[in-house]
Specification:
The chain has 6 helices and 13 strands. With 225 residues, it is of the alpha+beta class. It has 2 domains: 181 residues, Alpha-Beta Complex (tt1808, chain A); 38 residues. The protein has a 6-stranded mixed sheet. Strands 10-11-12-13 form a 4-stranded antiparallel sheet, covered by helices on one side. Strands 3-2-5 form a 3-stranded mixed sheet. A hairpin with a 4-residue loop joins strand 11 and strand 12. It is elongated, with a radius of gyration of 24 Å. It starts with a helix and ends with a helix.
């Protein structure tokens, strides 16, 4: 029996972690978590749009060394649900969109090895954002796949449209935000959503109190009659 056949007869392990930290800095980690949160909320009703990040993604069956871990990615045609790792050959789809949160340490790889691989995998749009705002470099870079190579998309005024997401990516000068052009509103962060929910609860409580007062007044009027 050949060594190749022997290799594939043995159970192949696809690790769930590469041992590296979730993000380069707390800023990177927070932004990664927020972007995933916002995208999950935005696509919540579309059951076959899968959003994740910082997940081991394997792209060649039987070769666990062929893997990558995008910071944020969006896949169409794949059901929502919990996964420990992502195997492209099992899911049947590579991501449509990848967002990498770059840093001084990862910049070369983000613009080199990763970009080449994402193009090979057919990732239609690739965005690179550096939340540390390096001097003399654009913090937000955008690319769209044309054939088997990426073509840079113009980022104008810190804004760029993602055709695949139907959202604008906006560099606010402090962080990266997602904007819905249909509603003309930014997608809410987890903090903003919590605050909005609390405000709605306060308003509801006030309405319920007013209704209770009105009912009491109506009851008194009926008793007078």
């Amino acid at each position: 029996m050949s060594s190749l056949k022997e290799k594939y007869l043995e159970p192949i392990e696809y690790p769930e972690s590469d041992g590296k930290p979730m993000g380069e800095t707390p800023v990177h980690r927070r932004l990664m978590t927020e972007l995933i949160f916002q995208l999950e909320n935005f696509f919540e009703k579309k059951k076959e749009v899968y959003i994740s990040g910082n997940m081991m993604m394997y792209y060649v069956e039987g070769e666990p060394e062929k893997m990558i871990s995008p910071d944020v990615f969006v896949v169409r045609g794949v059901k929502q649900g919990l996964r420990r790792i992502y195997k492209i050959w099992e899911e049947g789809h590579a991501p449509e969109v990848v967002i990498e949160l770059s840093s001084r340490k990862t910049r070369k790889e983000d613009f080199g090895k990763k970009m080449d691989l994402y193009a090979q995998l057919g990732v239609k749009e690739y965005f690179i954002f550096d939340p540390e705002y390096p001097k003399n470099r654009k913090p937000l870079n955008a690319y769209r796949l044309s054939g088997d190579q990426y073509v840079e998309i113009l980022v104008s005024g810190g804004r760029v449209m993602s055709k695949e997401l139907g959202l604008e990516l906006i560099d606010t000068g402090e962080t990266l935000r997602l904007f819905n052009p249909k509603t003309k509103q930014l997608l809410l962060t987890s903090t903003e959503e919590r605050q909005a929910r609390q405000q709605a609860e306060v308003k509801l409580s006030k309405v319920q109190t007013e209704l209770a007062k009105l009912r009491e007044q109506i009851k008194k009027l009926k008793n007078l009659g």
